[in-house]
Sequence to fold (341 residues):
Amino acid sequence: MGVGDELRSQYLEVQGMVIKTENGRVLRSFTFKEEDQTQEVRVVERKALLETLAKQLPVDSISYSSKLSKIEKNENGETLLQLANGTQISSKVVIGCDGVRSSVAKWMGFSEPKYVGYCSFRGLANYPDGQPYESLVNYIYGRGIRAAYIPVSPTKVYWFVCFNSPVPGPKITDPFVLKKQTKELIKNWPLEFRNVIDATPEDTIIRTPVADRWSWPGLSPSASSGGVVLVGDAWHPMTPNIGQGGCCALEDVVVLVQKLAPALNAGPTFIEDALRSYRNERWTRVFSMTVRANVTCAVLHLENPVACAIRDHVLVPKLIRLGPMLEYTNFEFDPLLQISP
Ligand SMILES: Cc1cc2nc3c(=O)[nH]c(=O)nc-3n(C[C@H](O)[C@H](O)[C@H](O)COP(=O)(O)OP(=O)(O)OC[C@H]3O[C@@H](n4cnc5c(N)ncnc54)[C@H](O)[C@@H]3O)c2cc1C
Fold:
């Protein structure tokens, strides 16, 4: 069974969306096919996706719990990675995919991502006997707060709550405090959302201050140089408002593999050309996604009561057409060639 077949057994196809206010009034309800016949919305648990991808690799090709503590250039032109456990790895090519606080990006001269004024709680509710929900995105818009819950498997329901906060706030790791704070934020909301939080094991809840970084050609550091290249959030952290950060990271990988694989044994010049070509091809898409996600936040996180009323009575129920809006999620690519281990 190939990776595609395995993933097909892991994801759920979501049929539509219901958007409500904090007091449970339905603003809009639709199926994705009604909005655009070509749209398919699929949800997959991150763990299931990562395990499925990892299974395709030869055994022992991934070293887990390998924290990068230092990166530097070798005299021979390779890049030397120093891990926290003392291991050193010298490599012709380094792909920095270490997320929003990437050490590799920092080493390449990128600034810290900028906090955008809101934080998120995320969690995964567990229903061992089967979750009771239809395959819909259940969205709730409030004042300076928004949230959603979405079934991701027959037994699990993913949810998030994003809320305005002038400062990122302290890092909280106590899972009971995280759950308490989430419940406090939505204590007056309809029971259905509160039930989902109640069904969530504390250890699946995380709190993230939301940040992004816009990379300008000529002004920002280059996403590839000297055999080191950035992928995903390490290069283009974006806000979660259009649900595309992880998707863009996967797209990056597909393009990078297509460029890099044929160049790997052809010498350093070919490798540099491949990395440059990857970065140039991807920049337009990831930049426009980052900006679009940031701007969308302005509507989603409104606090002013008049502006919220316009959003809830006019914009969401009458004006927004989701089909054209979702066109940006389309990404065409040639199938990757299977390489035998
Ligand atoms: C509230 C919220 C909702 C979101 N919803 C969606 C959505 O619906 N759809 C979507 O596509 N995206 C969504 N995203 C975005 C998505 O989570 C990210 O864009 C995605 O995880 C980026 O993948 P990545 O592999 O680049 O980074 P990550 O997933 O952050 O992975 C980075 C990895 O690097 C490791 N690492 C970090 N530092 C080091 C180090 N020094 N040494 C070794 N390893 C290290 C980390 O442990 C981690 O395993 C959402 C984000 C948020 C905050």
Observations:
- Residues 82 and 133 are 47 Å apart (CA to CA).
- The domain at 88-113+213-303 is CATH 3.50.50.60 (FAD/NAD(P)-binding domain).
- The chain has two domains: 3-45+114-212, 88-113+213-303.
- The chain has a mean pLDDT of 91.
